[in-house]
Predict the 3D structure of the following.
Amino acid sequence: VIEQVAVLLVEDDSMVRGWVRMALEGTEFRLAGEAASASEATALVARRRPDVLLVDYRLPDGRGTEFVKALRRSGVNTPALLMTANEEPGLNEAVREAGAQGTVLKTGSPDELAESLRAVHAGREAFDARHPRRSARQGALSPREREVLGLVAAGSTNREIAGALGVGEETVKTLIGRVFVKLGVSKRAEAVAAAHDRGLL
Amino acid sequence: VSGRLSGDDRDALAHDLKSSLSVIVGYAELLRARDDETIRREAPERILEAAERLGLEIDALVERLTA
């Protein structure tokens, strides 16, 4: 008798959920539940106690990495595999830093999905090498830039940041500009999201 | 496109388009990998649905870029 492994699927796209259901048919994996958002999934994890989590990276209420981080903070150590439709630079690093065990592409074969689930369930890692590695430039924020980014994430205005750091507002603008360039973003909210993804905050 | 959309919009757009595409590729992979009656019956329907959605997403993108 093959041991059944309970998978909780967290994916907002019903078409992708349908594909996962069909792809896992005939394998040892059975869906213990489906959630369309991180908040739904949090409740289901507690109720269904799945063996493995299969989580979309882009959920309507946040990144899959944030969801996994929150679970780890609350003591849930269920192995997690993050799914994306795109190859994303630095994703494997961000996923590992969030405390998940692997990544899988939605455009892969059903066998790849099952193999990746098998690996993380067995306590191994399964990071898809098609995601380009994080470039050195991506994570190389100076301590001062990280400090500014932390204050931006806390919702501080430039004036408040200037006051907190004892520098002028122009200096703050310069530091934020450098952070934007290094993270490849153009807005404060994007910088905060990118920093969370890369484990910089 | 990069000049007209913010980073967040670009990411969301790429995600939506690739998500539909991944459904098409995913079901095609299933058809190739499994000799199963249910898959033979359902996969073409799901592929057509995803292709239709992808078409609508592309139409919306073109409209947005040419508005």
